[in-house]
UniProtKB/TrEMBL annotation:
Protein name from the UniProt record: Lytic murein transglycosylase
UniProt lineage: Bacteria, Pseudomonadati, Pseudomonadota, Alphaproteobacteria, Hyphomicrobiales
Domain Transglycosylase SLT: 35-337
GO molecular function ontology, one term from the record: peptidoglycan lytic transglycosylase activity
Keyword Disulfide bond: no
Domain Peptidoglycan binding-like: 357-401
Coiled-coil blocks: none
Biological processes, Gene Ontology terms: peptidoglycan catabolic process
Keywords per UniProt: Signal
SUPFAM superfamilies (UniProt xref): Lysozyme-like, PGBD-like
Species for this entry: Aureimonas pseudogalii
Signal peptide: 1-24
Signal listed as a keyword: yes
Length: 413
C-alpha cells in the first residue's frame, strides 16, 4: 500500500504538481498540534507540577506521527476502522497457533528455572503464581526480546491530539511528563510501543507511576532493563487488580449443547457446582476440585461454538484487566499451565471465514437496533456481542453458535 501511495504521488507531481495540498494539509496538522500542546497540554501539565524545562525537553521537538493507527485527522468524517490491527481481537484460531503457543511456553519453562527464587519471593508477597507472571512477560515483550522503538512523547502527543480516544491519551501524556519530572526516567529513556506502552511489561504511563516497583533493591523502577523489576511489577499489577491467592485462572471444559452459550460473561457467575449439575465436565477427565465447586465460576466461550469452552474463575478477569481481551487472558492462563507442565488445548479452534472489524460493527448496529446489548458497536466480538448473537440465533430458531459469521451478517442485512 505504501508503494502504491508513493507511486500515485509521483504521478500527480509529474502531471502538474498536485501533491502540494497533501503537504499543506500535513503542515496544517503540525501547526494545530503545536497549538494543542502549548494551549491545552502545557497549562494542565503546569498545574500538575510539571516544569517548563521538562515540558520543552519532552515535547518541544515532537511532531505528530501520522503513520500511527487509529487516528482521526481534522476535517475527516468519523468512520469505523475496517481492519483490526490488534491481534487480541482477530481470529481465535490464528491467535492460538500451536507453534507460537508452544514456543512461548517452552521459553517460559527455561526461565522458570532461571528466575525460580525471584518468582517464589514475588509469589509469597503478592499471591500471584510465577507461571502467570512469566506468561505475561512472554506475551508482552517476548521475555524482553521485543524492540520498543517509539518515542513515547511522539506517540502519546499524537494520540492525545488525533486519536479516537483523545481523553485517555491526554491523561497518559500528562502521566508520562510526570514520570520525567519525578526523575524516574529521562526523556531519552521514554521508549514505547506504537500504543504508548512502556518497557518489558508494556505499562501505560499512568500504570507505571501507580504499579511499577523496584524488584532488585537498587532504588530504581527499571522495567526496561531489570528482570526482577519487570516480574515484580507485573505481579504487583495483578495483586492490586484483585488476584485471589490460591485459585487458578480456570479449566478447559466440555460444554454440552444443553448449556447455552448465552450464559457467558463475568456478570453471569454462579457456583461451579451448578455447571457440573448441568453436565459440564473437565476435558482432563478429572473432577473439579472440591473447593472450587463451591466457588464462583464463569462460562467462557471466546470463539463461541467454534472453539474450546472453559469455566473461568474470577482470576481470569483479573488477568483481563491487563489487556481487555478474552483471548489475551486465555492465552496467559493457558501458557502458564503449559509452563507448569500441562499440554495443548483438548478442543480445536475451528477457522471461521472472518468478518472485518467494520463488518462486525455493522452487525452490532443491527443487533443493537433490535434491542440487544452488544456492549457497543466497536467491531470487536466481546462477550456481550457473542451472547447477543446467541440470543438472536435462539429466538430465530437457529443453532446458537454465539459468533459473528458471514452467514449471520448476510441474514441481518
Amino acid at each position: 500500500m505504501r508503494r502504491i501511495t508513493l507511486a500515485l504521488l509521483a504521478l500527480t507531481t509529474l502531471a502538474g504538481g498536485v501533491a502540494a495540498p497533501a503537504r499543506a494539509e500535513t503542515s496544517g496538522v503540525e501547526a494545530g498540534f503545536r497549538r494543542f500542546l502549548n494551549d491545552e497540554i502545557w497549562p494542565q501539565a503546569k498545574a500538575e507540577g510539571v516544569s517548563r524545562q521538562t515540558f520543552d525537553a519532552a515535547l518541544g521537538r515532537v511532531k505528530p506521527n501520522l503513520k500511527l493507527p487509529d487516528l482521526q485527522l481534522p476535517g475527516q468524517p468519523k468512520k469505523v476502522e475496517e481492519i483490526n490491527r490488534q491481534a487480541e481481537f482477530q481470529s481465535p484460531s490464528a491467535y492460538f497457533d500451536e507453534a507460537k503457543v508452544a514456543g512461548v511456553a517452552a521459553k517460559g519453562r527455561v526461565l522458570l528455572k532461571t528466575y525460580g527464587p525471584v518468582l517464589k519471593r514475588i509469589e509469597a508477597r503478592t499471591g500471584v503464581p510465577g507461571e502467570i507472571v512469566l506468561a505475561i512477560w512472554g506475551r508482552e515483550s517476548g521475555y524482553g526480546a521485543a524492540k520498543i522503538p517509539y518515542d513515547a512523547f511522539e506517540v502519546l502527543g499524537t494520540k492525545a491530539y488525533l486519536s479516537r480516544r483523545k481523553e485517555m491519551f491526554r491523561g497518559e501524556l500528562l502521566a508520562a511528563l510526570k514520570i520525567v519530572e519525578d526523575g524516574d526516567l529521562t526523556v531519552a529513556q521514554m521508549k514505547s510501543s506504537w500504543a504508548g506502552a512502556l518497557g518489558q511489561p508494556q505499562f501505560m504511563p499512568s500504570k507505571f507511576r501507580e504499579l511499577a516497583v523496584d524488584g532488585d533493591g537498587d532504588g530504581v523502577r527499571d522495567i526496561w532493563n531489570s528482570v526482577p523489576d519487570t516480574l515484580a511489577s507485573i505481579a504487583h499489577y495483578l495483586q492490586l487488580s484483585g488476584w485471589v491467592a490460591g485459585r487458578g485462572w480456570g479449566f478447559e471444559a466440555a460444554i454440552p449443547a444443553g448449556v447455552s452459550c448465552t450464559l457467558e460473561g463475568p456478570d453471569m457467575g454462579r457456583p461451579i457446582a451448578d455447571f457440573v449439575r448441568a453436565g459440564v465436565t473437565r476435558v482432563s477427565g478429572k473432577a473439579f476440585p472440591a473447593a472450587e465447586t463451591k466457588a464462583t465460576g464463569h462460562l467462557l466461550m471466546p470463539a463461541g461454538r467454534f472453539g474450546p469452552g472453559f469455566i473461568a474463575t474470577p482470576n481470569f478477569y483479573v488477568v483481563k484487566t491487563y489487556n481487555n481481551s478474552d483471548l489475551y487472558a486465555l492465552f496467559i492462563g493457558h501458557v502458564a499451565d503449559r509452563i507448569a507442565g500441562a499440554g495443548p488445548f483438548a478442543g480445536s479452534w475451528q477457522p471461521v471465514k472472518g468478518l472485518t472489524r467494520g463488518d462486525v460493527s455493522r452487525l452490532q448496529e443491527r443487533l443493537q437496533a433490535g434491542g440487544y446489548d452488544v456492549g457497543g458497536t466497536d467491531g470487536l466480538a466481546g462477550f456481550k456481542t457473542r451472547r447477543s448473537i446467541g440470543a438472536y440465533e435462539e429466538k430465530a430458531g437457529l443453532n446458537a453458535d454465539c459468533w459473528p459469521t458471514r452467514e449471520l451478517a448476510v441474514r441481518l442485512k
